[in-house]
């Protein structure tokens, strides 16, 4: 079945019964006790009644939770208290902050205001935990892994798009995906330098010719194409050629969204792929009650149809190829070069193949292009860093093609990558949910609370928690007072000890059983690209004059905190981190957008 029943409608119905219908029955009951005949005139009484019921229910569940927490030797974290009922003002502020504030500053201010690294946002009376506490993140992702899962909230938002893929499943199903996908991204694949060279070459050719004619390069757009084409080759075995399509012209194509202009099926595939992420982000910003806007139609489905039209025939061909291999007597143990064929060895269900492909494409594309975008941004800001990277490369690689051995020797380049992933983690936060049991976080020393001191934090069952590594990785309490400075040397001098003693303060690739399986792949691909780039260019400049209006940092930031005062671009986040490129307020998808660096 291509589109599983949209569970969110059922959920909404359930919520409706709980919030409005049960009070309705109670209301009727009260009326009958009072011998009042029901009628429309009573509507003005009914609505406040529903509201009061919500308050009472909320009050009761808070009370119950506090008792349960104490009984377990724990306490509730501070709860954000807004001015309006249901913290509606906080919800609105958050939306506004996502459009105009420095990335995650909204959350940072809340953590400071309530003097706690874990909080309950409590939006519209619904529990929503946020944390930047490395110990809590450790418990969620590693030591207490079994007590959490991806959860209902996220699943129902992306079901049509990511379906039964690795990102969207838990337990046995997830394990099966993971053991299927992991071998493919093993060492062999992660060092597929032939493939890296092919797309690096095309990308550098574009940069060379633009720079030869003194033009600026839109790096974010270019890197999205680079990683998309490389991913398509490795996953589908297809030339997507987005690098050969018309590139956006710096300063002219401001604000347009989809930059893949081809109308062939791959062009529309790429667009549909982004549109799905767009819809997903919209759902997240609307919050818990997003399905109200999608009762009659699911915004995601039309885009998913386009994706299907593209992938199903490829999946079918892969299944044929498998039959062909069997016929000529090849064993399935032989290594498959293309992920699609690797999948077809294990399943013939085209929907299953599609889900897996899309999940990996999502995981691997924007993340790596984000890394490259922010590294080159820092390279443009700090010429001295470029000089040292080049020296590192000249010493260990020279001017030839890099090998996996000499990539390992590039310590300074790796420190630059580490430092970039620290300040701008491509995945700035993740969301998990407690299962059907409440959770008590261990205390800092690893022990659990005792009934005398209610020191550990308590989380109710079925409650989402967002962990914001973006803030953990800039926390001065962990990194020292220079936490917001870009300084690759912190990975090479005694400051490294801080990280070695407390590895959870830096988790760009996540940690625990769901740690990223593409880590080596991504690091190798990015390093390979940087080596080739730096063998050719020695100076990088930002070209703010080419940047579209509204995409430069607002004046007020000059007096802001930390990096705000020095930032030359506006970092923003959708599913992954990206550079803001236009002034429109729609939360559109990062890729194919504009930022211009001059490569000279
Ligand atoms: C700089 C690049 C990358 C970064 C920073 C990154 C980061 C992450 C993070 C934070 C997660 C955890 C997400 C969550 O649990 O919700 C993750 C998961 C994952 N990543 Fe990456 N990733 C990168 C590149 C890649 C690449 C290139 C691939 C594959 C080609 C990949 C494949 C995956 C997969 C399959 C998962 C899901 C693992 C699971 O749920 O068991 N990633 N990645
Ligand atoms: C790309 O490859 C071709 C053929 O190997 C080579 O002549 C050219 O110099 C390469 N271009 C870049 C930018 O590396
Ligand atoms: C980079 O970070 C990793 C952890 O992700 C660490 O093990 C490694 O030592 C760091 N290396 C350098 C050179 O910074
Ligand atoms: C812990 O909770 C109990 C309520 O069960 C309360 O009486 C006690 O004062 C609390 N202890 C601390 C240290 O807050």
Automatic annotation (TrEMBL):
Entry-linked Pfam families: p450 (PF00067)
UniProt keyword terms in alphabetical order: Heme, Iron, Membrane, Metal-binding, Monooxygenase, Oxidoreductase, Transmembrane, Transmembrane helix
PROSITE patterns: CYTOCHROME_P450 (PS00086)
Xref: SUPFAM superfamilies: Cytochrome P450 (SSF48264)
Top-rank taxon, per record: Eukaryota
Cofactor requirement: heme
Residues spanning the membrane: 12-34
Similarity comment: family membership: Belongs to the cytochrome P450 family.
Protein name (database record): Cytochrome P450
Organism: Somion occarium
């Amino acid at each position: 079945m291509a589109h599983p029943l949209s569970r969110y409608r059922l959920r909404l119905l359930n919520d409706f019964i709980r919030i409005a219908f049960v009070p309705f029955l109670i209301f009727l009951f009260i009326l009958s006790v009072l011998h009042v005949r029901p009628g429309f005139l009573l509507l003005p009484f009914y609505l406040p009644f529903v509201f009061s019921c919500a308050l009472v229910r909320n009050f009761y569940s808070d009370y119950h939770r506090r008792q349960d927490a104490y009984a377990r030797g724990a306490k509730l974290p501070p709860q954000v208290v807004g001015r309006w009922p249901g913290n509606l003002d906080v919800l609105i502020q958050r939306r506004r902050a996502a459009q105009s504030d420095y990335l995650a500053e909204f959350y940072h201010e809340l953590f400071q205001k309530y003097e706690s690294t874990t909080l309950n946002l409590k939006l519209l009376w619904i529990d929503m935990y946020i944390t930047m506490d490395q110990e809590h993140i450790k418990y969620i992702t590693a030591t207490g892994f079994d007590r959490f899962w991806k959860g209902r909230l996220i699943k129902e938002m992306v079901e049509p798009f990511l379906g039964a893929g690795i990102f969207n499943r838990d337990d046995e199903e997830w394990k099966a995906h993971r053991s299927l996908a992991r071998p493919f991204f093993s060492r062999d694949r992660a060092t597929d330098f032939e493939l890296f060279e092919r797309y690096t070459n095309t990308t550098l050719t574009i940069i060379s010719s633009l720079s030869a004619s003194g033009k600026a390069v839109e790096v974010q757009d270019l890197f999205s194409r680079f990683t998309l084409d490389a991913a398509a080759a490795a996953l589908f075995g297809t030339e997507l050629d987005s690098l050969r399509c018309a590139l956006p012209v710096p300063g002219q194509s401001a604000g347009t969204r989809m930059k893949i202009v081809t109308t062939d099926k791959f062009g529309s595939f790429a667009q549909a792929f982004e549109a799905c992420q767009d819809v997903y982000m919209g759902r997240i910003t609307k919050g818990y009650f997003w399905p109200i806007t999608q009762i009659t139609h699911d915004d995601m489905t039309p885009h998913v149809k386009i994706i299907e039209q593209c992938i199903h025939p490829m999946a079918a061909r892969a299944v044929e190829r498998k039959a062909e291999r069997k016929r000529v007597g090849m064993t399935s143990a032989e290594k498959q070069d293309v992920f699609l064929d690797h999948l077809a060895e294990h399943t013939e269900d085209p929907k299953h193949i599609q889900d897996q492909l899309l999940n990996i494409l999502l995981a691997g594309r924007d993340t790596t292009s984000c890394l490259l975008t922010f590294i080159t941004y820092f390279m443009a800001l700090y010429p001295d860093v470029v000089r040292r990277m080049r020296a590192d490369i000249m010493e260990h690689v020279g001017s030839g093609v890099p090998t996996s051995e000499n990539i390992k020797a590039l310590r300074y380049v790796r420190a630059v990558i580490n430092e970039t992933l620290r300040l701008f983690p491509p995945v700035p936060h993740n969301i998990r949910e407690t299962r059907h049991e409440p959770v008590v976080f261990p205390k800092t020393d690893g022990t659990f609370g005792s009934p005398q001191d209610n020191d550990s934090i308590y989380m109710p069952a079925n409650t989402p928690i967002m962990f914001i590594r973006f803030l953990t990785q800039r926390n001065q309490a962990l990194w020292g007072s220079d936490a917001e400075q870009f300084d690759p040397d912190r990975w090479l001098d005694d400051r490294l000890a801080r990280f070695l003693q407390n590895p959870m303060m830096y988790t760009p690739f996540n940690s625990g059983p769901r740690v990223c399986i593409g880590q080596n792949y991504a690091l190798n691909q990015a390093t390979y690209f940087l080596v080739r780039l730096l063998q050719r260019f020695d100076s990088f400049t930002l070209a703010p004059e080419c940047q579209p209006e509204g995409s430069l940092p607002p004046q007020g930031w000059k007096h802001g905190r930390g990096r705000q005062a020095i930032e030359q671009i506006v970092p923003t986040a959708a599913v992954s981190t990206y550079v803001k490129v236009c002034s429109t307020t729609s939360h559109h998808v990062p890729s194919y957008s504009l930022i211009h660096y001059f490569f000279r």
